[in-house]
Amino acid sequence: MLCVYGVVRASHPGVVTTGVQAGPTTLVVHDDVAAIVSEVGGDLLARRRDVDAHLTVLEHALAAGDVLPFRFGTVVDDEAAMRTVLKRSATHFRELLDRLGGRVQMTVKAVRDDDAAVRTVVASDDQLRRHVGRWRGSADWSDRVALGEEVSAAVDQLSNRDAQRMLDRIAQLAELVEADAVLPPVVASVALLMDPDRLSELDAAVAQLHDELGSRLQIEYAGPMPAYSFVA
């Protein structure tokens, strides 16, 4: 059985690092496309070392050329089955390689500090601050529920504004943007398809966002990586 890491052009040199289950990687070629694979035994389990090995293979592949990353756990029976996949989807793979070629993915994720967000909305809204002062020590359950709902709504509005501010700042630098659906405390999670020549601009934009919003948001910034979010 073969573990499949990704699809590349047939001219890709391949990678020399070992893959899942410490197996050496090879290329299976069909015409002008190829797949990076390695032999594995038994079912693939999402063990940390094997997931890391999968990602490492893809990082090495990206460093050597364009790659369409496959999810961990993708397997085929043998080289003949892999060539069948390549033959059946060759046109699609070529189109994706042309569209994504020379590009990398960067990800930006913002996670809210709830306490800091509450302090921000209370400090910036005179009416809400008065309500907090009036109801904070109230023994009336309905007053406390009403206060909680008002503060929660204000925090959600702040988070929506922060997410839009972040997206407005970084989306203009990307060629494609994929925004994931999120749940609190995550405010935004965005994948950006980037021209490597513009990464310094993105670095500066993320640094500025951190300076402006870092008191209430933890901003996680990762990449360059293969275009996981843009391969469909």
Task: Record keyword descriptors for this entry.
alpha+beta; 24% strand; 46% helix; 6 helices; single chain; five-stranded antiparallel beta sheet; four-stranded antiparallel beta sheet; Alpha-Beta Plaits; elongated; 2 domains; 232 residues
Structural class: alpha+beta
User: How many domains is the backbone divided into?
Assistant: 2
Q: Evaluate the radius of gyration.
A: 24 Å
* Average residue pLDDT: 90
Level-2 CATH architecture of the largest domain:
2-Layer Sandwich
What count of helical segments does DSSP give?
6
Q: How many beta-strand segments? A: 9
Distance between the termini: 24 Å
Report the biggest beta sheet as strand number plus sense, adding barrel if it closes.
5 strands, antiparallel
Q: Which regions contain 5 or more consecutive residues with pLDDT less than 50?
A: none
In helices, the fraction of residues equals 40-55%
Query: CATH class of the largest domain, please?
Result: Alpha Beta
CATH topology of the largest domain: Alpha-Beta Plaits
Strand content: 15-25%
The H-and-E topology, N to C, reads as EEEHEEHEHHHEEHE
Query: Which geometry do the CA atoms define?
Result: elongated
Task: Report on the architecture of this protein.
The protein is of the alpha+beta class and 232 residues long. It folds into 2 domains: 2-100; 104-230, Alpha-Beta Plaits (2-Layer Sandwich), CATH 3.30.70. Helix content is 46%, strand content 24%. It has helices spanning 48-64, 79-100, 114-124, 126-135, 141-171, 199-213; strands spanning 2-9, 25-30, 33-39, 68-69, 75-76, 104-112, 176-179, 186-194, 217-225. The strands form 2 sheets. Strands 1, 2, 3, 4 and 5 form a 5-stranded antiparallel sheet that branches. The protein has a 4-stranded antiparallel sheet with strand order 7-8-6-9. β7 (176-179) and β8 (186-194) form a beta hairpin. α3 (114-124) packs across α4 (126-135) and α3 packs across α5 (141-171). The longest helix has 31 residues, at 141-171. The radius of gyration is 24 Å and the shape is elongated. It starts with a strand and ends in a 7-residue tail after the last strand. The mean pLDDT is 90.
